[in-house]
Structure formats: structure tokens, C-alpha cells
Amino acid sequence: MQEQKTPRLVMEGITKEFPGVKALSNVSFQLFPGEVHSLMGENGAGKSTLIKVLTGVYSNDEGTVKLEGSPIHVANPLEAQDLGISTVYQEVNLCSNLSVVENIFIGRQIMKKGRIDWKEMKSRAEEVLARLNLTIDVTKLLSSYSVAIQQMVAIGRALNVSARVLILDEPTSSLDTDEVNQLFGVIRKLKDEGLAIVFISHFLDQIYEISDRITVLRNGELVGEYMTKDLPRIELVSKMIGKELDAVSSNRDEVAKKERGEVLLEVEQLARKGSVEPFNLDLHKGEIVGLAGLLGSGRTELARLLFGADKADSGEIKINGSKTKLNIPKQAISKGIAFCSEDRKAEGIIPDLTIRENIILAMQGINGVFNYIPKKRQIEIADEYIKLLNINPRNPEQLIKNLSGGNQQKVMLARWLITNPELLILDEPTRGIDIGAKAEIMKLMISLSKDGMSILFISSELEEVLRTCNKIVVMRDREKVSEIDNGKQVTQQDIMKQMAGGVV
Amino acid sequence: MKSLKLDYRQLPLLATFALFIMMYAFGSTRYTGFLSTQVFLNLFIDNAFLIIVAVGMTFVILSGGIDLSVGSVIALTSMVAASLVMNAQLSPWIVIPICLLVGSLIGLGQGCLIHFFNLQPFIVTLAGMFLARGLSYLISVETIAINNPFFDFMASSRIPLGDSFISISVVIALVVVVLAVFVGHYSKFGRNVYALGGNEQSAVLMGLPVGKTKIMIYVISGFCASLAGLVFTFYMLSGYGLHANGLELDAIAAVVIGGTLLTGGAGYVAGSVVGVLILGIIQTIIVFEGTLSSWWTKIAIGALLLLFIVFQRVIVIRSKVKKSSVT
Known about the structure:
The structure holds 2 protein chains of 2 kinds. By secondary structure, chain A is an alpha/beta fold. In chain A, 35% of the residues lie in helices and 25% in strands. Chain A has 2 domains: 2-241, Rossmann fold (3-Layer(aba) Sandwich), CATH 3.40.50.300; 261-336 and 421-504, P-loop containing nucleotide triphosphate hydrolases (Rossmann fold, 3-Layer(aba) Sandwich). Chain A has helices spanning 47-54, 77-82, 100-105, 118-131, 147-160, 177-192, 204-210, 233-241, 252-257, 299-306, 329-334, 344-347, 355-367, 375-388, 405-417, 435-450, 462-468, 492-500, and strands at residues 9-18, 21-31, 36-40, 62-67, 70-72, 85-88, 111-112, 115-116, 165-169, 196-200, 213-218, 221-227, 263-272, 276-284, 288-292, 314-319, 322-324, 337-340, 423-427, 454-458, 471-476, 479-485. In chain A, the strands form 5 sheets. A 6-stranded mixed β-sheet of chain A has the order 6-9-10-3-11-12, sandwiched between helices. Chain B is mainly alpha-helical. Chain B has a single domain (8-318), classed as ABC transporter involved in vitamin B12 uptake, BtuC (Orthogonal Bundle), CATH 1.10.3470. Chain B is globular. In chain B, the strands form 2 sheets. In chain B, strands 1-4 form a two-stranded antiparallel ribbon. A two-stranded antiparallel ribbon of chain B has the order 2-3. Classes of the chains: A alpha/beta, B mainly alpha. Chain A binds chain B through residues 57, 76-82, 87, 89, 93-98, 102, 106-107, 109, 111, 115-116, 140-141, 143-144, 146-147, 157, 296, and chain B through 5, 8-9, 182, 185-188, 191-192, 194-195, 197-199, 201-209, 265-266, 319, 323, 326-327. Chain B: One of its GO terms (cellular component) is plasma membrane.
């Protein structure tokens, strides 16, 4: 039935080139009123670029954009908003130092006699948020609310401009299940009101729950447009990654049966006030231990203790049987521990350095500042790992900020792998990256562990944990609640029960 | 917990007010004659120009920038005013607009460099500082004393206020403050300044006119500096290249002590006024004490500044800790 309507938005033949990268080539996209249209693709497929062309952050080299039949040329985000095209980004892009009211209205405040009418704006803000089933004190600072509420405020801001097209760019990546359901309720309501919504997410369940239509992009090219109900999941995935999915061959049996090596790391009563309660753990050589738990359960905090990024108050750590103190990361690195942080942007990549320079960092750190690694050797190493980890683009001199999330993550991995660590701590290495890259990272973990490396794997994706780990440690409220040996009989349900605690 | 959250925005401002009252009370109990309306009003009379500069500086710092050129712009303005009035014999009614234009144009130039070439405000305004100071010496290396009926009138007029009085400069300063409070709170431009200081990236994505706002901020600061230069000239009745040497730092100190975050995004114009008054009261106390060298003013300002920066940091850290424990 939607076919009979005229599309609200049509993008045709969009091409966008960056120095050395063709981000989009001849991509078309159409959006009808009253539908939720998912834009799918791996990282680097061109989703974000397409959105940025639409919202005027980038200008396209070729192609046309038509809004309700008439061609438009969007020069900047303000023009896009004036045309009724609004975006809610993955990371909430509002000003947290301003109040909720102000975040909704800034740039188009209600004026009365030449001055901002705060009273009117306050009541209008409350109305807008009421439409989203949200009742909060709008005069408080945005920073005093949770990410979920900030996201709603961002949507409120978008709606306030009599939006015609609403773009939701990974709105659910930092929300919990209840919050996601709440958001979906709002999306459905807006859809029924005739809004055209573009929805971008990595979560397949959510795509199938909310969207009517799916457009798939791969490597900057259009793969096709499908009705959601006619496209089975497995086909969607294979269209996204461009090859038949070998279902990331689960090696659970193998994983479970594996002989244990000798103990590498013994942690006894390790604790830090306010972040981790006394914690015990044995980690064997060649073992992958999954650390499951909700956000705030103490997973990351534990990892930081083990890496010396935070200092423990009490407890002891033994590595290869000898007692060690890990007070600063340098000590941990010298003991063969490597740590990939979950916050890639803040604690991982150095955006303005090249792939090669980012890879070489940790190794240079160990060698010492005065022990310069010859550039030729650096390039060799970079090339080797670019190939090994299938990092795209293959050019080691590309700046890392130009890479997609998944490829940045692989560079982080490479950085630590060249130090040849005995223990690799991965904190959410698969967050925000596409299925193909996820599979590659999991495969890599398994093959590393076969070579004798021990891995501590922190992840919110239970499926990944079950697929790769020999042992699963569950944390809840900063405490270890159980330790489960993996095997066929262990289900996601079992782990979730432990994570949630109490009777389920 | 709730009250703490509210305080986060206003705590530095409240602390500044409390400090001012404490210092005033301290002076009043220790020295006879301190607790008089005129001593209080003198704070305004002696610091009218600093209030005006601090107002402009508040916008700059709120946006996350800095303007080091203001002191030199004051000197340049005083030189331009003095030479045009005394040497060129022009009417003050022509001289004053020219002076204001000089500061605004310097601000405009700095703003454009900062925005279009994406340069650090620190380095651009440092260059502006040297440039303006140099230009004032180019006009004359000597002091030019001003002997003009209009300037004399502005310098010596007293507006009675009960038993006491204020100067015309104070009126100008207060008008500037009132305008600035209005602009800061009730104009789109003012709110854009806060947004810009909070998160420039977001401001761009929210479609705010970031470039225009940035340039405008430095124009305002330049304008305020040249207005302050005129007021300073009324006060000194001379133009001299060494006038207001290092004043930019006093202005920054006043703004920070007034509770504006040096990183931008939070603060109030009114706070900066109190910041200036605190600097003034330190001086007054030292004068009343009589035995102390005037350099103690600098020591006191330095100590206070340190205290406030640490204080702000603690508030920010505490609010972060609180947030992470909530989410």
C-alpha cells in the first residue's frame, strides 16, 4: 500500500568521495511517510556518510535529493532542520551544560518583545516531551538526566521543528531493554502520525521489530531495498557482509573440552572501594574467560584493576605464581598484560596519527622512547597486521580517524598483539561494529587462545561470550556472583539469571 | 542529593558573593570609616573600566575562548583619543565613535582569524595584544595629557546618591552590565555563546550559527575594551602606551573568581562584576591597612585565583562522581 503513496524523500545517484576513499557511489534511497525505514550495512558501508549528505554535514559530489518532489540542496545542518529533516545521533549531540528546555529550543527560541520567552518555552517543552510520554523537570540541566532521557530530549528537539523526516542513528546502543521498548512505543506513535523515520541500528532484533522496509548498503554501494517481512534474517546478514554466512562456526564443544594449561593469573580478594568488591579469579594459559554482567556491574572496573589503570586497595595478584603489584599500566604491560578499552575514542585511538603509528605505539612504549623502531620495520609490522586482521583500508599511512569503528578496533587489537601479551583483556571489543568484523574478532580470539594466549573477554553480547569462552564469570553489583564452565548445556538464559540475580 | 545538583551551577557564584560579603565585613570591623557608602561606591568608581572589560571577557570565556588583547586595546584607545583630541583638535563627538570602532575592528579581525583559520584564541589574541600595544607607541612614546572641556566634565562630574556620589563612568559601566545580563539570558546570541562553550561539536550539529557567534564574541570583547579605554581615559585624563599594562589578566582573574568556568559553558555576567569588586576590595583593605605594600594585592589575587580554580574543579569532579553513581 505504501507503493501508492508518493515518497517523502528521494535520494538518487548519490556519490561522495573522500581523499583516497569512495564513500558512496551511485546510491539511491527513498523514504515514504508513515514508515520506519532501516538503513543497514557493515561499518564503512556508507550509512553515516549517506546520512551526513542528507543532513548537510557533507556535500555530495553527484546525485540529487528530492523532498516531497522538489529538489533540495542542503548546505548545512541548520538548513536541513529548516526543511524538516532532523537527526538524533548515536552519541547524544546536545549541550549538557544547558537546561532541557534550552536544548529543545536553542537556535529557534520563542521570542516575545525582542527577548526570549522562557515561560512559554518551558510549557511548550513540557508539551513536546509529553508527546513522548516523558514528564520531567525541564528546567534542570540536561546532564542531570540519564542517556535514555537525553535521547528522548533529542527526539523532542527534532519533533519540535514540525519534522518531516526523522533520522535515528543508533539510538538504542546505550539503552537498556525497558528504555528501548519505551523508545519503540514513541517511534510507533510518530509513525502513525505520518512521520517518515530512518532507523539505523546494529541490533537485528530491533530492526525486525520496528522497521517496515530495509535498505542495505555495502562498501558504499546499494545492495537493494526490501520489505522487512519478505527478508529473512540470514539473507539480510549475507547481503550485508556479502558472503554466505558460515554462521561464525561455533566451536563451543571444542572450547568446552579444551585441556587447561597451567595457571597464568591468580587474583585473590582483589578489591577497590566503590568499584569492585573482593574478587577471586584463576586464569589458565590459553583460556578465554568471559566476564558477563550488566553495565555498572564492575566488569570494566575489574579490568582496569588488572591493568593497573586504577589502583587496588587490597588483595593480591599472582602472575605465573609470583606475587606482583600492578599500580600503573606500565607495570602491567611489562608483565605481559594488554588492555583494549571499551571507550575506543577516549582511551584507544589517537585520531590524528596513521594506522601504522597507532599500531606501533604500545611496542614503542615498551622499547622506550629512545629506542626508535626504524620506519621500515614499522611499515613491515603494520602491513603484516593489516593483512592478518584484514584491516581496511590496506594503506598503513591512512589516518585512523578516517576508519570505520570495526577497523579502528582491529588496529587497537594489532597494537597490543605486537607486544605479544600473555594476557589480553578485551573490554567490549565488538561494541558498535558490524557482524562481519565481530565474527573476525571472535575467530581471532579463538585462534590466539589456541596459541596459548589467555584472554579476558568482557561483553554484553551473551551469544558471543557463549560462543568463545571456556569459562564465564558473572558479575553483579560489583561482585562476582558465579563462575560457569561453558558447555552445550549452558544457555543464555542461565547466564541472564545470574546477571539479574534473585528469582527470575 | 537534589539540592547538590541545583548548586552545581550556582555554587561558584554563591561562593563569590559570600567571599565578598566576608571581606567587606572583615574590613568594616577592622578599620574605622570602612563601612561607609562612599567607600563602597568608590569600588565602582575606581573599577568602572575593569567592570566593562570583564563583561566582554565573560562572553569570551563562556564560549571557551580567551582574549589577551583587551589591556593593549585600552592603551591604544587612550592614545587614539588623546592624540585626536589634543593633536588633531577633533571634537569628542567624532573621537568617541572612532575609538569604539578601533576596538571593535581589532575584535572583528581576531574573531575572523579564530573562526576561518581555526586558530587558537590564545595565540591570536596574544598577537593582537602585541600589535595594539605597539600601535599605541607608534602614535607617541610620551604621555599625552588631555585638556578638553568634555573630558574634564566626564572626569569630574559627580552624580549625587544620597550623601555620597558616583561618576558618569559608573553609570556607563552599569548600563553595560545590564545590557550584558539581558543579552546573556534573553537573546539568542547569548544562549548560543553558552552552547558553544558547552560543546562546539553539538552546537554545529544543532544548526547553531557557530561561526557568526564566535566572531561576534570577539567583536563584543573588543568593543568593551575600547569603551573601557574611554572610561579609563576619563579617569586618567591622559593617553599613554603603558596604560592598563597586564589588565587583561586582572579581567580574566575577575571573571574566574566570579564563577565562570575557564573551560566555558557555565557562568554569569553578574558574577564577573562581583569578581571585579573583590579585586577592588582587596586593594581597599590594603590601603586602609596602610603599612602593607601594594604588591600584596597581587599576592592576594593570586591566592584567591588558585583557590577558586581548585574549588571549581572539585565541584565538577563531584558532580561527575555523583552522575556515575546515579546512572
